[in-house]
Description:
This protein is mainly beta and 220 residues long. The protein has helices at residues 4-16, 197-200, and strands at residues 20-24, 58-62, 65-72, 76-85, 94-95, 102-105, 108-115, 127-135, 141-151, 169-173, 184-185, 191-192, 212-213.
Amino acid sequence: MVSATLLLTAAIAPLASAHFNLEYPVWRANTLESGTNYSQWNYPCAGVPPATSTSGNRTDWPLKGGSVKLDLHHPWEYLFINLGLGVNVTNFNYTLTGPTFWNVSGAGTLCVDLPLPKGLTMSDGQEGSIQVVTVGASGSALYNCADITFRANATTLSKDECKTDDKVSFVQVKGPSGNSTEGGESADGKKSGASLAGLNKVALTAVVGMTLSFVTGMVL
Ligand SMILES: [Cu+2]
């Protein structure tokens, strides 16, 4: 005989563990912690202000792009990872999952090395923020941000630190060009070369139109 309390606990547990963690670069704050005013439903950064010179997290990130590590708790989501430049970013106008976004399946760790869009050259000490957006079945989005400083001596995470779980995979949704590796237009109209380090290792099926190409066994 299972008690009503136990059943209720079992029903609530998935909600409590929902949403996602931005593990790297270190997020602005733990937006899943109770007792805060943060909510991942809030655009653009879950209600968490950016790091300042005296408070908050700011991670050194390589000049040409770096690692992004997520702990995903939902069975699937559409994923957008964006970059904005400056100390107090208001416009996350570069897409790092470009030219469109990813369709992610499976809960668990997703870790990828993301190159910057083509033509975007950073110098040592420049600041920016990474915004991670996930969209679920309802069309509502969840947000988390991490503040970064571009550093010439920063490196991507090691292979040991940056492993995607076997049960997690993603598909890059094709842009109108039908070729996800040749870049597209970002919000500000600049070319965003979407040359994904990881996807380049995989033979993508070039299909014209808004179609999906399945990527399995991502080892990044
Ligand atoms: Cu959730």
